[in-house]
Amino acid sequence: MSVASPGTEAVIADVPAYMRGLGEAARAASRVLAEADTGRKNTGLTTIAEVILDRRATLIEANRRDLEAGRARGLDAALLDRLALNDTRIDAMAEGCRQVAALADPVGEISGLAYRPSGIQVGRMRVPLGVIGIIYESRPNVTIDAAALCLKSGNATILRGGSEAVHSNRALAGIIQTALEGADLPWSAVQIVETTDRAAVGELLRMSAYVDVLVPRGGKGLIERVSRESLIPVIKHLDGVCHVYIDAAADAEKAFGVAVNAKTQRYGTCNTMETLLVHRDQARAMLPRLQRAFAGHGVELRGCEGTRAVLPDVHPATENDWTEEYLAPVLAIRIVESLDQAMDHINTYGSRHTDSIITEDWSAARRFLRAVDSSSVMVNASTRFADGFEYGLGAEIGISTDKLHARGPVGLEGLTTQKYVVLGDGHVRT
Predict the structure, then answer these.
(1) Any bridge partners for residue 409, and if so which?
(2) Which helix (H) or strand (E) holds 348?
(3) 354 vs 269, which has greater pLDDT?
């Protein structure tokens, strides 16, 4: 087993050779996982859950070391909170593994099987991607989430967590690998990069011979670097500049409830509304009421000239505000003249993440669904629903705003691909 104990530091003299070793082991493990039946994978997941709970004290002690180091480095309260493990979060990690075990296994599903004129049957089988590299920051629970989803979808994974969580991640990796061996699965199906040397990330980005897909989870700087330097396909999103558009035909109560929820339910998530678009016919009635509600939540408003004509005390919005992912109690507001102008604004300034229209006009709703080029497009619903759990995926590895190969919340199916299968009975082509 390759994981260093939680109390030791891994010293890697030859980082490229070390990373190649991880890649070779992961590739070999991926071939075993591709043939593993659902029962074996589920046993591995439930065993991980059991070992997490058995080693609760070890996890908390390893996490204590990370928290102490984080405080010494001056990490802010929000980062320390994301880093922290407690009994509730440990229980949630174990329960997450059990929930993934309960999900339907997409691997091996055959769809579209049909006879061709030649007599052969042609269909598509869903299969694992192979080896998935995941680069992430801060949250130790990502180690378990990523391992569980990759295991259930039949993929081996190489995990590179942030240096601030190194002790927690090593402890978790040891738990995962112990559980895999107990379930008669290769321990190398889930490997963590033990070194905090940043050169390891550079090597991982170039390991196209061993890694099939990369998933970066973290800040914009990390995702931009991975997207820029990777020689491997990347599943990612850079920003969550999400919009709610209150249409001329919107129901006022629905519009009010959705707008307030989309902004204030949580501020630091990628599916939080950052810009509110309001049709001019709704502005004078809706905006004062919304201003009072947002003031009650401590939200700073920044508005266009039309907005400031209705709400004179809001801050003027600049061009940069339309592309800003605040991740904070700040909201940009623009009054638009039409549905077309709203859609043009979203497609110009948005990040192709999640956008919603509030309307009782289903002709307008259908136009919005077709024309807005985002991974999730909604009608009369809060953008905060853009989440794998809420979509019935059970869990997600992240959200993709790309169009290939996965788009939107990426669950088990998004971690697989399809290959053609042909069934014959001695058929030959003439």
Answers:
(1) 399
(2) helix 339-349
(3) 354
Single out the residue of 336, 360, 352, 359 nearest to residue 276, CA to CA: 336
0.85 exceeded by pTM: yes
- What token pair was written down for 348? 């110009």
One DSSP character per residue, 7-60 reads TS----S-HHHHHHHHHHHHHHHHHHHHH--HHHHHHHHHHHHHHHHHTHHHHH
Distance of CA 85 to the CA centre of its chain: 20
Check: CB of residue 354 under 8 Å from CB of residue 341: no
- Of how many residues is the chain composed? 430
pLDDT in tens, 143-179: 999 999 999 999 999 999 999 999 999 999 999 999 9
Instruction: Evaluate if residue 7 carries a pLDDT over 50.
Output: no
Residue 388's identity, in one-letter code, is G
In whole angstroms, what is the distance from residue 198 CA to residue 166 CA? 13
CB 280 within 8 A of CB 314: no
Which pLDDT band holds residue 4 (cuts at 50, 70, 90)?
A: low
Distance of CA 94 to the CA centre of its chain: 19
Tell me the mean pLDDT in the region 401-409: 92
**Rounded (5°) CA angle 216-222-223:** 50
pLDDT at residue 395 in the model: 76
Query: Which residues, at least 6 apart from 313, have a Cβ–Cβ distance to it below 8 Å?
Result: none
- Which of left, alpha, beta for 64 (phi over 0: left; psi -120 to 50: alpha)? alpha
End-to-end CA distance of the chain: 54
Q: Which of 299, 269, 220, 285 is nearest to 382 (CA)?
A: 269
d(CA 258, CA 359): 11
3-state secondary structure of 150: helix
Q: Taking the CB of residue 363, how many other CB atoms lie within 10 A of it?
A: 10
SS3 209: coil
CA 411-414-419 angle, to 5 degrees, is 145
Higher pLDDT, 395 or 107: 107
50: Cβ–Cβ under 8 A, 6 or more apart, which residues? 94, 179
Amino acid in the structure at residue 182? G
Kindly tell me if the per-residue pLDDT of 199 is higher than 60.
yes
- Give the other-Cβ count within 10 Å of 35's Cβ: 10
pLDDT surpassing 60 at residue 6: no
